[in-house]
Design brief:
Elements (H helix, E strand, L loop, with lengths): L13 H25 L4 H17 L1 H6 L4 H22 L18 H17 L2 H12 L4 H8 L3 H24 L1
Helix pairs in contact: 1-2, 1-4, 2-4, 5-8, 6-7, 6-8, 7-8
Organism: Micromonospora maris
Keywords: DNA-binding, Sigma factor, Transcription, Transcription regulation
Protein name: RNA polymerase sigma factor
């Protein structure tokens, strides 16, 4: 029983090498787009799978050279199967979990960090508009719901939501400017 064509090394002739170069040049970008769509935008994985597809093309260069009209269908079929295999492999193993950088996680015992954070927020609150400040105080310091804040401030609920959104953004920007000074 002889080795199968996918297990044996392909002997590259100049014609085979030229054909493989043309295949890579012509199909690299279209295959990458095709795989990126199949993988829901996972560009890096798509790049890896394009390489795997071309590796399989190299292993089957003699079959591809025999009928050049079947190169594109063969490549797209292989690429699709490679993508399906990759997704099945990811589902078969547990999801990867990234650990937080423990050097940046605040400890509960660090009172000085809390004091610095409170000071930074107080400085930043003074830098945002009075309307934004009032919404933040109602919602975050007094714990009011959107409806309660709207009633206390005498403005519509939609305005409270909008101001809260922009107030948080303004506060982040103001905190960034207080940290750099």
């Amino acid at each position: 029983m002889g080795p199968s064509s996918s297990d044996s090394a392909t002997v590259e002739t100049p014609a085979t090498e030229t054909l493989l170069g043309q295949i890579v040049e012509e199909y690299r970008r279209p295959l990458h787009r095709f795989l990126t769509r199949l993988l829901l935008g996972q560009q890096e994985l798509a790049e890896d799978l394009v390489q795997e597809t071309f590796l399989r093309a190299w292993r089957n260069a003699d079959r591809l050279a025999a009928d050049p009209s079947k190169i594109a269908p063969w490549l797209y079929t292989v690429a699709r199967h490679v993508a399906i295999d990759a997704m099945r492999a990811r589902q078969a193993r547990p999801p990867e979990v990234s650990l937080p950088d423990l050097n940046r996680v605040p400890t509960t015992d660090d009172e000085m960090d809390r004091v610095v954070n409170v000071h930074a927020v107080r400085l930043a609150l003074g830098k945002i508009s009075p309307e934004h400040r009032a919404v933040l105080i109602e919602m975050y310091y007094r714990g009011a719901s959107v409806a309660e804040a709207a009633m206390r401030l005498g403005i519509p609920e939609g305005t409270v939501k909008s101001r809260a959104y922009y107030a948080v953004r303004a506060l982040h920007a103001a905190i960034g400017s207080t940290e750099s000074s």
